[in-house]
Design brief:
The radius of gyration is 31 Å and the shape is flat. It has a 6-stranded mixed β-sheet, sandwiched between helices. The chain has helices at about 15-25, 85-100, 115-125, 145-155, 160-190, 205-215, 285-290, 295-310, 325-335, 365-375, 380-395, 475-485, 495-505, 515-525, 530-545, 550-570, 575; strands spanning about 5-10, 30-35, 40-45, 50-55, 60-65, 80-85, 105-110, 135, 220-230, 240-245, 245-250, 260-275, 400-410, 415-425, 450-455, 460-470, 585-590, 595-600, 605-610. The chain has about 600 residues and is an alpha+beta fold. Helix 5 runs antiparallel to helix 15 (about 530-545) and helix 5 packs parallel to helix 16 (about 550-570). About 35% of the residues lie in helices and about 20% in strands. It starts with 5 loop residues before the first strand and ends with a strand. A hairpin with a 5-residue loop joins strand 17 and strand 18. It has 17 helices and 19 strands.
């Protein structure tokens, strides 16, 4: 093999640099090189055996043919062509083609997801004219020397299901998004010819905007379930037991009328049991939901930074699984920095169980990341996110918590009630989560205790046939969690949509819809880009397994695109006109040319209102 030469295509320049550093164990001559191609300076890494070229994202993208110059009556355009993204992409592709002519094997070493699969395939297919059988694929969960070299040695065939899903997503986004964006922009320019702005719509972006717009305004909703009666209890019955200086409270199914009783202890018993402390390692959805204080976009950018430095595993993952050899490595490193008791073990981790999701692992720090954390080499925000990951890593290795529990049985009015009286943790040095401990004096058989049973009642009858839902400003986290619940977007992309809507002036920095955002949300509702339909498309994409499945999916996307565009064409002008808060039709004026600020002027109110 020593005489063979390999070209590796990475996704980002930082990843390319880390891959090249790792490969120095196999090629001492590999070093950073800067090429000047078509006036673009491109950094790549070359040695005697390996050449690593960063793609820097999608160099080749799908686009409806002729969409930029299309007239309204020519839409929709469903004929998709694959084009080079921009001048820099053309230069980078030219360099990749030149370097590919002098190697024995092409290896795609992009990120382990749909995006990475599509990036590598489009370069190989459209620029290098290779089929998926003509190049190899490297899959790694962390950018460390060990895992990069293992991935190189285990390189194999392309994951065709990931690939076809990545291509399908790109085609759907481009065909639907560009067609309806073009149609809406042309319709609005017919009404407001002085406006040069394009008005973007998107396959996933659109239902996200309509959801935020809906939640930002108060509504009256009918709900007949809000009926209470004096005969109904609120909350659980409560039982208070007093003995000496101890007062214990219990909730639950207590079959006694409210009142004060004397009870006699008729039995005291001690039992031992274990409860599991260990939890699976987190995936992307867990980190987005649980990490407080950062927006989902900040969380993902920080996880990406940790990954690109080799300090954490790949962050865009649904998996909670991890291979034993990876966990052994990080456990030993963790133990060298923290005084974990002997009971902590890799074998305790639930992340060892089950099967990997497309081979990817959960999110956790690598051994290099643990060292960087304890050496103080991370930035404050990296350290904050790493602290969360370390906490989860400690928890996943934690042993079962051993408990000794003391129960007393109290006889009250000929009823025996068994109550937990004291709980002791037998291995406190191994506890990672707080466990309530009742260290109370234990009564003896025959002792008398005072018992109070309390039940809360509604004192009158209320029937709420209508309730008001108050307007609410959603946080970025609220939106991402909603997307998770309704299966909208993917773990790799959900964090992007609120920042995109702000960038397109549909939301303020506080996530309140602008005048422009409200109008676009209204249009989206009229043409039927619903959450349910978009989630259905996500399901269809996830079901694709082979490249041969793509034509049928594309036909379905064509039909949807035609439906959306025709509805846009047929939408009455009145539905597209902007109005002030009093309902008057306004004029739009754009200052600063294309991309400049747009102001709505109401001639009746004699007021100017920024559109965003």
């Amino acid at each position: 093999m020593s005489g063979r030469r390999f070209l590796l295509i990475s996704e980002k320049e930082e990843a390319g640099r880390m891959i090249a550093e790792a490969l120095k164990e196999l090629d001492l001559e590999i070093s950073e090189t800067v090429a000047e191609v078509n006036s673009s300076r491109i950094t790549y890494f070359e040695g005697s055996r390996f050449v690593v070229v960063p793609a820097k994202g999608h160099l080749i993208e799908p686009r409806p043919k002729g969409i930029r110059t299309a007239k309204l009556n020519q839409l929709p355009i469903t004929d998709i062509v694959w084009v080079e993204r921009d001048k820099e992409a053309k230069a980078r592709l030219k360099l990749i083609k030149e370097l590919a002519s002098d190697v024995d094997e092409i290896i795609v070493a992009t990120d382990w997801d749909r995006e990475g699969e599509a990036i590598g395939y489009n370069i190989c297919r459209h620029k290098l004219k290779l089929s998926i059988a003509d190049y190899r694929r490297m899959y790694f969960s962390a950018l460390t020397p060990r895992y990069v070299i293992e991935a190189f040695e285990r390189r194999g065939a392309v994951d065709e299901s990931l690939l076809v899903q990545g291509l399908a997503r790109a085609i759907a986004d481009a065909e639907i998004g560009l067609n309806i964006t073009k149609a809406l922009t042309l319709r609005l320019k017919e009404l407001y010819p002085e406006v040069k702005q394009a008005f973007s719509l998107g396959r996933v972006q659109s239902p996200v905007l309509t959801y935020i717009n809906e939640r930002s305004r108060g509504e009256i909703e009918v709900d007949e379930s809000y009926v209470t009666d004096a005969s109904e209890y609120s909350g659980s019955p409560q039982l208070f037991v007093m003995y000496g200086n101890t007062s214990m409270r219990y909730f639950g199914d207590i079959d006694l009328p409210a009142g004060v009783y004397e009870g006699t202890v008729v039995d005291v018993a001690t039992e031992e049991r274990s409860i599991e402390q260990a939890v699976p390692l987190p995936n992307t959805n867990d980190v987005m939901s649980e990490l407080e204080g950062l927006s989902p976009d900040e969380v993902m950018r920080t996880l990406e930074q940790l990954y690109l430095k080799g300090w954490a595993t790949y962050p865009r993952t649904e998996s909670k699984w991890a291979p034993r050899e990876m966990l052994l490595e990080v456990f030993e490193e963790l133990r060298s920095h923290l005084p974990l008791s002997y009971e902590f073990s890799v074998d305790n981790s639930p992340s060892l169980k089950g099967a990997p999701v497309k081979g990817k692992t959960a999110i956790f720090l690598t051994a290099e990341g643990i060292r960087a954390y304890f050496r103080g080499e991370m930035s404050r925000i990296e350290e904050y996110v790493a602290s969360y990951l370390l906490e989860k890593m400690i928890e996943t290795f934690a042993p079962p918590l051993r408990l000794r529990e003391t129960y007393i049985t109290v006889r009250i009015a000929d009823k025996d009630i068994r109550l937990l009286w004291r709980k002791e943790v037998l291995n406190p040095e191994s506890a990672v989560r707080s466990e309530s401990e009742y260290l109370n004096e234990v009564p003896s058989v025959g002792d008398v205790v005072r018992v109070i049973v309390a039940r809360e009642q509604y004192v009158s009858r209320y029937v709420f046939s209508r309730i008001t839902r108050r307007a609410r400003v959603l946080s970025d986290r609220d939106v991402v969690e909603w997307m998770m619940r309704v299966n909208l977007g993917t773990e790799a992309t959900r964090h992007e949509y609120v920042p995109k809507l702000k960038e397109r002036h549909y939301l303020t920095q506080s996530n309140v819809p602008t005048l422009l955002g409200v109008k676009v949300a209204q249009v989206i509702e009229k043409i039927g880009i619903t959450t349910e339909l978009t989630a259905e498309m996500e399901r269809k994409i996830n079901e694709l397994e082979r490249l041969d499945d793509l034509p049928k999916f594309k036909t379905w996307v064509d039909e949807l695109t035609r439906e959306f565009v025709e509805k846009l064409k047929e939408l009455p002008d009145e539905e597209l006109k902007f109005r002030c808060g009093r309902g008057h039709e306004v004029e739009l004026v754009q200052y600063g040319g294309k991309g400049g600020i747009i102001v709505a002027y109401c001639p009746i109110c004699n007021k100017k209102i920024p559109l965003f």
